[in-house]
């Protein structure tokens, strides 16, 4: 009997050890939509590789740096300025000062503001390799995760039209990060690329300049992320929100939910948000019980 128990114990230990040895490495792609008020800032992590796309406005820089440090990130492999507007590039100044950055990717669209010039000066001072992303280019960020610029038009008249739009693919799960791309950009992307994506970072903070119904029909997003704060532009517009509802997307916003973190494996994803009250309020108004309302 004693012998039997000993064998059972050994078997248990062996299985326990084996289960640890054979456990798959963490294959999660984590995309953080950082709440920077009115603006964009998106952090992407995959197996220790890191990329920050935009940093919100200048006064959001400190929040972004704090967020990176809190997430254990002292070093960024890539920083991307999707286009030179202050609500995207401003916060990158503090990031470039405080965090070690390996590469900077830029739209190539120039701007004459002090903010944009200061960002460029810092890149030069720190001798960070600086590259311009080409339209359609594939970025070798963290294979096997695929990353393609579906829009990057440095020759555009309008700064928003120059926006770098990335599609990121991890197995079956796609993210489309629309920056401030316009409806014209959307139509061009629809004609040139497969824009289908489970998760859409809605273009231009929900402005009427973006997110046409034709585009949404091709993207077919399950989840829509709106990035905005208190603003005088009327972002997001009611029309865009109603289009997102019509397409059946679940809407999250940094304004209501704070920081939004999407963790994807190759065939599913989950979403965690800093604040839950928006969903709670929606549940109180819901006429029928929905599963997440029990939480
Ligand atoms: Zn913007």
UniProtKB/TrEMBL annotation:
<dbReference type="Pfam" id="PF00753">
    <property type="entry name" value="Lactamase_B"/>
</dbReference>
<dbReference type="GO" id="GO:0016787">
    <property type="term" value="F:hydrolase activity"/>
</dbReference>
<dbReference type="InterPro" id="IPR001279">
    <property type="entry name" value="Metallo-B-lactamas"/>
</dbReference>
<protein>
    <submittedName>
        <fullName>Metal-dependent hydrolase, beta-lactamase superfamily II</fullName>
    </submittedName>
</protein>
<keyword id="KW-0378">Hydrolase</keyword>
<dbReference type="InterPro" id="IPR052159">
    <property type="entry name" value="Competence_DNA_uptake"/>
</dbReference>
<feature type="signal peptide">
    <location>
        <begin position="1"/>
        <end position="23"/>
    </location>
</feature>
<dbReference type="InterPro" id="IPR036866">
    <property type="entry name" value="RibonucZ/Hydroxyglut_hydro"/>
</dbReference>
<dbReference type="InterPro" id="IPR035681">
    <property type="entry name" value="ComA-like_MBL"/>
</dbReference>
<keyword id="KW-0732">Signal</keyword>
<feature type="domain" description="Metallo-beta-lactamase">
    <location>
        <begin position="38"/>
        <end position="228"/>
    </location>
</feature>
């Amino acid at each position: 009997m004693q012998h039997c128990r000993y064998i059972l114990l050994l078997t248990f230990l062996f299985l326990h050890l084996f289960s640890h040895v054979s456990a798959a490495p963490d294959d999660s792609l984590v995309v953080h939509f950082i709440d920077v008020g009115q603006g964009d800032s998106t952090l992407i992590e995959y197996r220790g590789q890191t990329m920050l796309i935009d940093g919100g406005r200048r006064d959001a820089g400190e929040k972004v740096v704090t967020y990176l440090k809190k997430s254990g990130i002292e070093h960024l492999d890539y920083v991307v300025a999707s286009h030179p507007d202050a609500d995207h590039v401003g916060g990158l100044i503090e990031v470039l000062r405080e965090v070690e950055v390996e590469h900077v990717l830029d739209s190539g669209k120039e701007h004459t503001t002090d903010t944009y010039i200061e960002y460029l000066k810092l890149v030069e001072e720190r001798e960070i390799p600086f590259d311009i992303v080409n339209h359609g280019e594939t970025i070798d960020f963290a294979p096997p995760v695929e990353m393609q610029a579906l829009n990057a038009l440095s020759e555009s008249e309008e700064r928003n039209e120059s926006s770098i739009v990335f599609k990121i693919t991890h197995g079956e799960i796609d993210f489309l990060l629309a920056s401030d791309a316009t409806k014209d950009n959307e139509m061009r992307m629809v004609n040139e690329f497969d824009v289908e994506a489970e998760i859409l970072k809605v273009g231009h903070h929900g402005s009427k300049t973006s997110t046409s119904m034709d585009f949404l029909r091709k993207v077919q997003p399950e989840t829509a992320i709106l990035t905005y704060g208190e603003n005088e532009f009327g972002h997001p517009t009611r029309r865009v929100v109603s289009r997102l509802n019509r397409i059946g997307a679940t809407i999250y916003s940094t304004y209501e939910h704070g920081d939004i973190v999407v963790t994807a494996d190759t065939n599913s994803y989950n979403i965690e948000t800093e604040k839950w009250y928006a969903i709670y309020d929606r549940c109180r108004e819901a006429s029928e019980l929905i599963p997440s309302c029990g939480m």
